[in-house]
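Q: Sequence in, structure out?
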Amino acid sequence: MMILFNDITSKDTYLGGKAQVLGLLTQQGFNVPPGCVLTALPEKEQEWQDLFKWWMSLNEPPLAIRSSAAQEDSKDHSFAGQNKTFLNVSSEKEIKEAIKKCFESIDATASKSYREYFLKNDKNAGMNVVLQKMVAPSKSGVFFSQDPRGIKKESWLIEVIDGLGEDLVSGKETPHQYSQIDQGDESYLSYALINEIAQVGIKVKNFLGYEVDMEFCLDHKNELFILQARPITTLHSKNLDEDYIINELKRLKKLNPIRTTWDGHTFSEWTGNPGFLTFSLWQEAFSPHYSFGDALEKLGYLSFKDEDFSPHTSILESVFGHAYINLNKLAPLFFGPIPYRIVATPRTHLKFDYRKLNMVTVLRTPYSVFKMLKVGWYLSTSRKKIINTCQKELATFKDKMNRPIEPSLYRNWSVEELVERFLKEHESFSRHALYWPFILIILTESSMSSLNALLKSIIGEKQAQEKLKKWLALGIHTTTAEMNRYFKKACAYPEKRPFFMSRYGHRGAGELDLSKPRWVELGEKAFYQLEPEQYDVYKERQKSNKNLVYDEIQKLDSFKRSIVLDEWKLLKEMLELRERWKMELLRPYSHIRFLALEIAKRFDLGDDIFWLDKNEIQKLLLENYSLQLQKKIDRRRKEARAFKKVHLPDVLALEELDAIISGEHKEILSKTSFKGEPLSPGVVQGRIKIINDIEGIDLEDLEPDTIIFAHATDPGWTPVFTKIKGIIVEKGGVLSHCAILAREMDIPAISGININHDYLKDGLKIWLDGTHGTIRAVN
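A: Exactly. Output:
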């Protein structure tokens, strides 16, 4: 059915906020370009003819054709960018095609993900389509009746650019700004016009009864047109978000001394803040009497002790929802109280700290020195033996955990059996399964430091660091690289997919978070279309660097050459073994997810189960306990949403937090060029696409010149890599999934760039140099 703007009433909420508001503003006499709304895709020819008759009555102007979903542009949800928009549509054929695509966009992955995330379901997702006469604008902009950033709460804000407003909304253009307090540049737009826009915007706000975000344009005669008006969706939660952030800051200050330092490198490949259940499991693993402490003790370190200097709780802590190791707690686990602190960069090492000199550290120094020497001797003489044991334990673990990767495995279990098995799997993973991987991680860090020190003594510090990064990038053959090759083969040859799923189905996008689905749950949706010819090209492109590191070591002009070679071989063996352990660890890890989901079905919790810890899941067996949890789940979800706005560095000091939260802690970078860590060589030009959640990405919408910008990536991102020119990640080193896959696919990549940087926004055109780790804006 077609409804003209003049016929829309205040009761027509089903039309969506966009269509309804445009209709109401039209009837109030505001200058809105004429338009209509379709409530369904025309099926009969007569319906199309009625539409074209309306268009011809306007003298067949170019049209703007946009979605207006039932919940779109409401007070709670904007649906910004989730559905389709088409501008300057100027023929009957184009009008039909644009309308069809707008109606179809309700089923796009991004739109579905948005509804499922914010509305918790995908039901009643009615779609309407707005058709509106295009205005040929000299300038376009947006008026906010209240500054949505919270910077100047008492002020309205206007942003304006030349031409169409699409580049303003997408972030491709940086707008001129004007506010009630700061009038801005009058040479670009006169104060008279600014005041006219503000007055109209305030009238719209007063008519609608809420703070508005009003899109407008000025034609070449400076006539003002209203194109859209909606509530400022960020305001309703802004104060609550600020409360959560302030309370978290108070909590951290109350629990920790001012010189507390945290290190986030350990979990750099988490593609976002971990869910509540996920974090509680890993936090347990870093607690006394669990796998991390046991691994330290196995290697001869002090570990957790029933002493005042030793921590009695987990050293893994949540800082604004991010997972960090508390370095103050970690330090005494090695050698007890010593006048040294742990420094996390460039590699973890000890540094003298005079502030830790006291009677206890002085008296314990002889014992600590003896302990250091003993551990050093043990590690230098026993590494090969430990590695062999790790390999045997991996074979045993693999055999023991050999069970189907099948989410429906627990479908017929009773709820009591499910909870009992869930607790057993949870405990086994945090207490036992991580034991040998932790030993490998600790041993690897020690060996990395030894090799770096050796190279430093031969070729100097800077060259040593660069050479070691190169060797790690090109000289390690990991199971992740092997998995990526099998994945592409399965994409090219569908008959190979069952084999791929049987071998790798327990992995997936965001796999370290239990709330994220595994590939086996996605089935065919896990794959993308790849022609066999494309796979053959990919195979041919693979380069063997098997002998590169050995050749470079032989060229070292030093008698230490043979020692370097031995150290490299050990390090290579440990790193490759560590990756094989990770592959097998994620098998029982996936079963913890499957069990949690099956328990959730019995209590009608859905994905809310991932906002609980194991003790709360156990208590679900108590009568009506699940009903008591909803407020707790809602609070944790809102907290997590607030904390997503907080960007923190990998290494963080408590005394820096106030400045970081207030925004006063800025990176010292030039306006148009940035330096990061090179991961994969090459130079490309393209436009930035920021991706915060891979589940919301529609691959078909990625432009050929896309350079994605993400917190981190994991194997589930492989389909995205096939569609892009380059990648920037906030976190990840030369052995990360991002680095391995980018090098395999000849995609330039760098890491170490703040994803929340004010300048690097969606749509910005840049040069990405993966060889030198630089980004430069295109003039």
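The first helix runs from residue 17 to 27.
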